[in-house]
Amino acid sequence: MSCGEPHETDCAEVLDHLYEFLDREMPDADCTKFEVHFEECSPCLEKYGLEQAVKKLVKRCCGHDDVPVDLRAKVMGRIELIRAGETVPDHDVTEGPADVPSPAE
């Protein structure tokens, strides 16, 4: 998505790192760049607003559920693989080693 206008920070970069911005998991300087971009780019601002609303809804509806420690570790491991640009296994994140069928099955 792009508004068609040139920006100091490209729309693709903003959208690729939108959740890092929402979660404040990026340096302050990058947050400032994104804020400037949102002031200039209404399509990205709209996407930001939508994702922010979804995040608030999920927190309100699911924020009180306890997440099993092993599931959290698997999800975080997959996120780290994706961030590192590595290939992500095709099996479901929630499957454990015992859940993966052997080739003979």
TrEMBL record:
<dbReference type="Pfam" id="PF13490">
    <property type="entry name" value="zf-HC2"/>
</dbReference>
<protein>
    <submittedName>
        <fullName>Mycothiol system anti-sigma-R factor</fullName>
    </submittedName>
</protein>
<dbReference type="InterPro" id="IPR027383">
    <property type="entry name" value="Znf_put"/>
</dbReference>
<dbReference type="InterPro" id="IPR024020">
    <property type="entry name" value="Anit_sigma_mycothiol_RsrA"/>
</dbReference>
<feature type="region of interest" description="Disordered">
    <location>
        <begin position="86"/>
        <end position="105"/>
    </location>
</feature>
<feature type="domain" description="Putative zinc-finger">
    <location>
        <begin position="11"/>
        <end position="44"/>
    </location>
</feature>
